[in-house]
Amino acid sequence: MNIIERIRLSIFPGAHKPAEEQKGQRKYFRSLLLHFRPRVVPERTLRFSLTWGLGGMAAVLVFLLFGTGLMLKFVYEPFPDRAYDSILHLQQNIPFGQLIRNIHHWSANGLLVIAFLHFLRVFFTGAFVAPRQFNWIIGLALFAAVILSNFTGYLLPWDQLAFWAITISSSMLEYIPGVGTWLQESVLGGPELGPTTISNFYAIHTAVLPALLLLIMPFHFWRIRKANGLVIPRLPDEETETLGEKVNTIPNLIVREVAVALVLLAVILVISMLFNAPLAAKANPGLSPNPTKAPWYFMGIQEMLLHFHPVFSLFIIPLMLVFGLLCIPYINYQSETAGVWFCSNRGRRMALIAVLTSIAATVTGILADELIIGSVLTGPPDIISSGLVPIVIVLAGCIGFYIFMKKRFGAANNEAVQTLFILLATAFLVLTIIGIWFRGTGMRLMWPW
Amino acid sequence: MTNPHPQNNNPEKESASSRRSLLTKLWVLLGIVALAELIGIVFAFLKPNPKKSSAADRAAIIVAGPVDTFQPGTVTAFVRGKFYLVRLEDGGFLALSRSCTHLGCTVPWVAKENKFICPCHSSEFDIRGEVISPPAPRALDLYQIIIENNVLKVDTNKRKKRSEFTAGQITYPKKT
Ligand code: HEM
Ligand code: HEM
Ligand code: FES
Questions:
Q1: CA–CA separation, B22 vs B17, rounded Å?
Q2: Is the pTM of this model over 0.90?
Q3: Which chain A positions have a beta carbon within 8 Å of B135's beta carbon?
Q4: Which of A157, A221, A250, B82 is least surrounded by CB atoms within 10 angstroms?
């Protein structure tokens, strides 16, 4: 046997065996492919209209971010006086440097959108009730890690965009009662952005959070397997029992996953070739650009900040929302709706009403506050008039809407909770959109064109 | 042999297992102590370091110059120290931080309008750092001023938050 053959055998010890036995070897390879997946899966869960491929896309983007991030690490230098120049060097002198940075940038932003859509699909197919309760919580942890990754990465190029966006966002921490100043100084490593900030963010971005993601993601996938796969999609009046017909994972599931992954890769590559990741002038602590905005995914919070007292918009409201999200899987639901999009036909009608109500109420609220009450530009923020009063109005509105919809439609609490969720999620989206496109110089309302 | 536990038919096993459970508890206790120490070390390691080197301490004291170089009613920017030195009409001094108290943008002094205007969300402050127009919730922070031999210095390590302007915050040079 020559040396090459011997090496080949040392890697694949079964390769010289008769063909009959080599099938066994193929099986090992297949079980590697299967990994966390069972050998067979329910046929119905393969439908694209259940998952929209979103969870798989999120996973692909995370791996893309790991690949490109590790490459960026070889060039990037985490020091205030060198970071910006190292990015310029990357873009101008390193072959494909700009492309790698673009892929990292667009994957990061895409991941936020995709993970959010995945979160919506999980909610609206009712895939969070037992036995999937805890996977909802794990998903929320993943989402938190993704947001923090985006936030810590945003600072690294150390340009005017990065510097002031992080200044503004980290100053928001200061308004948390009691621990605010301490928290802000711990994050920044001092009273303002400096060398410690960048080394903190770099360590968190390229070591702590990636390690966390690598731990939590397998946990997420393992829970899916423990729940016997995905929730089985069905029409509103179909029974649950008869739907479990199974097919082989290979090739049925694998082929679909690979197809989604390849299409996504192609899209990201095309976008990265056409659009460069933004890079403004080098950070200048003495000059704030006008307007200065937080990263786009915090724009909803920044918009709230213009209307509510900071203690409410930065602390109490987010706390209530997170608490609500954590509670969702543990509420006692009156009817069994897992697998049915939007619970039922009634749920769909209620959902539509909630979306329209929410858009109307949020836009009216913002315009009223801006044009009539004018809390944006007059009088110092006051805990009663700009905190307690508006929050009580908003809360009363939400509770009133919940009760009204439940009575009016004679709905189960599944549908009513979903309606409330849609009301709040839509309001958040409207705030974010207004913050991104409808705020100009001095944070005044304006048209985006 | 007298049996201390008459109802137990195997006294040795019983005492061995209670000894073992005591040991287990000790181990758990030791584990918790070790974990607490570990967490303490991590926190101490990551804490923002308040004790800078003495060189950095000296660098934090900025010598602004002789008192007479600053005309009453003027604002002088110190880029290195990140503050404004204000001399009020009555001859008193204030050293104002240039960070907006709203969300930390740098506020430029607009001499034409005689006020500080923040570019980010258009808060306005008067020459004493007092809020004229929100959303800023507090007056601009102050740094400590030291006047020795008629030379004015500003300690940029000592930053003081204040809710509003009071006369006591002004530093006056000694009358000569
Ligand atoms: C980086 C972020 C995430 C990744 C990579 C990820 C990945 C996945 C994948 C691959 C699946 C199975 C296929 C699919 O539904 O597309 C899945 C299912 C699931 N995910 Fe995620 N996910 C993420 C975030 C989230 C979030 C934010 C939530 C919700 C709070 C969540 C909750 C769930 C639940 C409950 C399931 C099971 C759904 C079912 O049984 O039908 N995940 N996830
Ligand atoms: C979920 C995972 C991740 C997300 C969401 C993410 C997000 C980001 C974002 C938004 C930026 C700013 C890029 C820009 O627009 O200028 C960035 C930069 C960077 N990231 Fe990541 N990242 C992730 C994972 C990683 C990993 C695993 C590494 C390396 C181990 C890494 C290393 C870097 C480096 C070195 C930069 C600076 C270069 C630049 O700004 O272009 N990232 N990241
Ligand atoms: S940071 Fe100055 S007004 Fe917002």
A1: 8
A2: no
A3: 305-306, 376, 381
A4: A250
